[in-house]
């Protein structure tokens, strides 16, 4: 289905230990996390808060297990803070990832985001950017994209629940306001389905700019409860809204086929934040790896 060596498979550490809710997976160590990733058959990882920030230490730990770093999340505040503040932090983040051999930088705008607020209803409290905020976001992302290019890297924008870029329309607007050579797109199947959108619509509309893929599934009965009971994003995670590919309701066969038809190259990252006390991370990592192999041959 995919060209040989075109796609690498990674998994995010958030299934083992949650950066936003440290109580989830508090006792799971960095070493356990990456060892189980390798045991499940993955080639790479994104970076979590428990990962060493010394490139030498991190390289050694990963090399022992045959793993690479695919990327890492970066929180931008371009709509609420001076550009220079975000740019300075971005450059430090960029340089760390460059030393780790990554070639994409995951960026999400957190200005007025509610994704980290435990008691704010996810759907009712979602921010909507003003014209001024859209302009600041687009201009700022262009600047960050040029900074990424200085190291031969690509900025990929992560649309996300609870932020100002969540819906099909908002993603389309961001793509219209930014230059393809400066800002690419991270495609996240789970966030689109959670938002009530059709992931294939975004995939087909923006394929040339999609340079990174997060594979995430949802449990529709939990999402329905999130909407009915006005739960927050963090409450939704605790309730089990997300799961690994093949364990929810998303039609991944069509997604994989579309990406293969357009000769996608890059990382597939399994990212499904769950409570590790309820969803054993190794068990779900193996389940995801098996599903991807059966669906794609990878």
Write the layout of secondary structure elements.
Layout: E1 7-11, H1 30-40, E2 44-46, H2 55-63, E3 68-71, E4 73-76, H3 83-99, E5 104-109, H4 131-149, E6 154-158, H5 168-177, E7 184-188, H6 189-194, H7 199-206, E8 210-215, E9 217-218, H8 220-228, H9 233-239, E10 242-243, H10 252-261, E11 266-270, H11 281-296
Parallel strand pairs: 1-2, 1-11, 2-3, 4-5, 5-6, 6-7, 7-8, 8-11
Antiparallel strand pairs: 9-10
Helix pairs in contact: 1-11, 3-4, 5-7, 7-10
CATH topology: TIM Barrel
Radius of gyration: 18 Å
Roughly what is the average pLDDT, rounded to an integer?
98
Question: Structural class, judged by helices and strands?
Answer: alpha/beta
Let me know the CATH homologous superfamily. Answer: Divalent-metal-dependent TIM barrel enzymes
**Order of SSEs, N→C?**
EHEHEEHEHEHEHHEEHHEHEH
Q: Bin the strand percentage.
A: 15-25%
Instruction: Give the N-terminus to C-terminus distance in angstroms.
Output: 8 Å
| Low-confidence parts | none
CATH class: Alpha Beta
Shape: globular
CATH architecture: Alpha-Beta Barrel
Approximate helicity band = 40-55%
